[in-house]
Design brief:
Layout lengths: L13 E6 L4 E4 L2 E3 L6 H12 L3 E6 L10 E5 L3 H11 L5 E4 L6 E3 L20 E3 L3 H7 L5 E8 L3 H12 L3 E6 L11 E8 L2 E9 H13 L3
Parallel strand pairs: 1-4, 1-6, 4-5, 6-9, 9-10
Antiparallel strand pairs: 2-3, 7-8, 10-11, 11-12
Helix pairs in contact: 1-5
Bound molecules: cytidine-5'-triphosphate and calcium ion.
Cytidine-5'-triphosphate binds next to helix 3 and strand 9.
């Protein structure tokens, strides 16, 4: 659409974005995952590229086409996403963690398809914690400006502020996913962008428009 003017707000900047879900294998045919569509992260990548940034998008499994001018690296699991982010981190000015990274993965991946056992009506899968990619990036020497997302169903702003502090990041974008028309898998979103010294509400809109506004806000902080 030609209505989107490019103001060059991120000219000369390098931006690294994670998007989509991760998939954590249980056995050769099964995995744990979530309903993230990747739409918000892809919209941010598109918006950042339109503002002149050199964008790298590390994407979990999702059915979306790569935005124009964006370098895309596809990954499956949280560990793969972490490795791809680590390999791309040098010289980045901005990191946006938009992926819905699975918090846990199966402690081991069965080599063969798991079978039901006669007489067993319960089954338990041991899980271990995945690395927190966003917190890890924020801890690196010379870390870029770090932006996270917080999908919450209650106490949205309070929980988001805690995440901002706990992860040592510069901005958190909170969204209320208790409303199923917004956030996960939806085309629309409504968010609050929280940093140490500011709080900006962005009203319900398409993810493309929210992304454009967020990129304008973030670029004013760089
Ligand atoms: N995140 C990440 N790596 C993880 C978990 C989360 O990089 N292993 C990032 C997400 O991309 C998001 C932010 O951290 O930008 C917050 O994710 P969220 O799931 O809301 O927070 P958690 O810290 O995982 O806390 P919880 O799920 O318990 O609310
Ligand atoms: Ca989580």
């Amino acid at each position: 659409q030609e209505s989107t003017e490019n103001e060059g707000l991120l000219l000369g900047k390098r931006v690294l974005i994670t998007a989509g879900p991760t998939r954590e294998a249980i056995d050769p045919v099964r995995y744990l995952s979530n309903h993230s569509s990747g739409k918000m992260g892809f919209a941010l990548a598109a918006a950042a590229a339109r503002e002149g940034a050199e964008v790298t998008l590390v994407a979990g499994p999702c059915q979306l086409s790569t935005p124009a001018g964006v370098r895309r690296i596809d990954v499956i699991s949280a560990n793969e996403m972490h490795e791809a982010v680590a390999n791309a981190l040098a010289q980045q000015d901005l990191f946006i963690g938009c992926a819905a990274v699975a918090d846990f993965r199966p402690a081991s991946i069965a080599e063969q398809k798991m079978k039901k056992q006669d007489g067993e009506n319960e089954m338990h899968i041991a899980l271990v914690k995945n690395p927190d990619i966003l917190a890890w990036v924020a801890q690196q020497e010379g870390a870029p400006y770090c932006v996270g997302f917080a999908a919450e169903t209650e106490n949205v702003e309070a929980y988001a502020r805690k995440k901002l502090e706990r992860k040592g990041i510069q901005m958190i974008i909170a969204n209320d996913v208790s409303n199923s028309d917004l956030g996960f898998n939806s085309d629309n979103n409504a968010v609050v962008a929280i940093s140490a010294d500011s709080e900006q509400h962005i009203a319900t809109n398409t993810k493309a428009e929210i992304a454009k506004q967020l990129i304008a806000l973030i670029s004013s902080k760089l």
